Amino acid sequence: MIAYLSGDVSLVEEQRLVLQTSGGVGYLVQIPQGLGNRHSVGEVLGLHIHTSVREDEISLYGFETTAERQLFERLLKASGVGPKLALTIVSVLEPRNLVQAILREDINTLSQVPGIGKKTAARLCLELKDSFSKSPIQGLESAVITGKTTTPAIPSGETASLQSALKNMGFAEREILTVLASLPPEAEGFEVKLRLALGFLSKR
Asked: 3-state SS string over 12-62?
């Protein structure tokens, strides 16, 4: 399994480049958007690598820092997130901002990423929040601290009341949590949020 590559850049495109090692082997590496603009052909470059192995393909994804690679790998653990979407996420959001957005359940920030709607953003928060909180990525520990101290959009007591009401109506807990996390921040009051949540749930 390749974890790190260093060599001469022999090809640079928007989201991929070729690293030629001292042994003369050239590796095609998928990279976050913008990284290619910071490097040029002939330059010596080292990248932290995630190796994706499928039945018919082996793909390499390269990152300048271990934090970016670990974020990419953590995103892959979320349902419905493949390498292409994970790479887009780390291309658009800085590592610190991404961690804080998930911890704060900041649906608006996450949904700025192409390919991520509010439902997907809510699912990312639901599935990854505990992971980022309990197992911080090395170098991003301060992002976890500031993310935790931010007041959530919905008070915990009100959230519990909403969950209870929706459960009594027959909705599953998982979809209830996803919908509550995606409610717009301007929504205020139990009745308003309940009405919005019912509207979202009826469309699922």
From this structure: ECCCEEEEECCCCCEEEEECCCCCHHHCCCCCEEEEEEEEEECCCCEEEEE
| DSSP 8-state assignment for residue 151 | P
Closest CA to 66 of 91, 47, 44: 47
Q: Which amino acid is at 9?
A: V
What is the enclosing helix (H) or strand (E) of 192?
Answer: helix 190-202
Tell me how crowded residue 77 is: count the other CB atoms within 10 A of its CB. 11
Q: Cα separation of 88 and 83, whole Å?
A: 9
Which of 35, 30, 10 lies closest to 21 in space, CA to CA?
A: 10
pLDDT grade for 154, boundaries at 50, 70 and 90: very low
Q: What is the pTM of this model?
A: 0.68
The two tokens of residue 63 are 């990152």
